[in-house]
Request: fold
Amino acid sequence: MPFSEVLNQSAATAHLQKSLRGRVPGALLFCGPSGVGKKKAALEFAKALNCLDPQARAAGDACGVCAHCRAIAAGAYPDVLVADFLYQARLELKTEPNDKKYEEELEKELAKQQRIKVDTIRDITAKSQQKSAVGGWKIFIVDEAQSMQAEAANALLKFIEEPPQKTVWILLTDKKAALLKTILSRCQAVQFAPLPDDTVEQLLRQTDCAVEDPASAAKYAQGSLTRARRAAQALEILQSAPQGPAWPAACAAALPRSVASARQSAQAVLDVITLAVHRAWLTAGDETVRRTLQEELKKLENYKIAVARNVPPALTVETALMGLDMRRIQI
Reply:
C-alpha cells in the first residue's frame, strides 16, 4: 500500500492513517528535516482521500493503482496542487511553455526562488475556493512553508482557519519555529524523523542514478535525502580536484557558474568538510589536535555564514580549504 512506501516514518504515517479513518483535519503541518519524505507523505495522504478503492480507503490508505492514485502520482490530478518554488517560478515566468527557450528560462527563474511570495499564496487560495473538478477532496500542499513572506503567511491564515468542506491544507517545513504562531495554532502538527543512513542509501539507489557513490553520500546526509544529493555533488567536487597546493583553487573553480547554484554548491562543500572535521575531532586522541580541529570547526561555521550573506562562493570555498590540515581529515 502507498503509505508503506514512505520509509522509516511509521509514527507519522500511523498518525495520518488514524486521521483518515476518523476526522480529517482541515490543516496539517508536516515538520522535520528536508528530504525525509514529507512531500511524499502529503501526496499519499491526497491519494488516500481520493482513492477509488473503498477497501483501501477503509484501511486509511490508497490502492496506488486506480485512475485517481495514478493521476496524483503523475501531478495531473486537478484537485491536488503543490505550491513550491517550481510552481512559483512557472507563475512568474513570462515565456510561454511552447517557446523553445522555456526550459532554459524556467531553470534561471527557479534558481532565483528563495521565498514563497504573497502572489503565489493568493493564486492558490483563489483556487481553493473553486468547486472541486472531480467531486472529491481538494488538497493544497505548500512546500518550504517557513519561507513564506509575512504578507503571504497572513494571506494564507484566514483560509486555513476555515477551509471549505472536503478541503485540506498541508504545510511542509523544516523550520517549524520560523512560522507564525497563528499559523502553528491552526494546524495539526505531524513530526517526521531523520532517516537512517541505510535508508538514504537505498533511496538514492532507487531514485537517483546520477549519484555514483550512494554509500558515501549517505554518510554525509544527516538523515536527509536532499542533503545526500547535495553531498554527492560536493564529494565529486572535492574528490575530482587533484590533490596538492592547487587543490583549494581547483575545488573553487569547479563550482557552478550561476551565482545561485554556486552558493548552494559552496554550502554543500562546506557542510561535507564540516562533518569530516567533526568526525576527526570525535576520534582524535591528542588534546592539542582536538583543540586545533575545534578551531577549524568554528572557522567553517563562519565561512558558511559568509556564503549565506553573499560573499563570493568560490572565494569563500578556496579560503576555507586553504586553512585546513587535510592530513587529519578523511573525506
The chain has a mean pLDDT of 92. Residues 197-322 form one domain. The chain has two domains: 2-191, 197-322. The first strand starts at residue 27 and ends at 31.
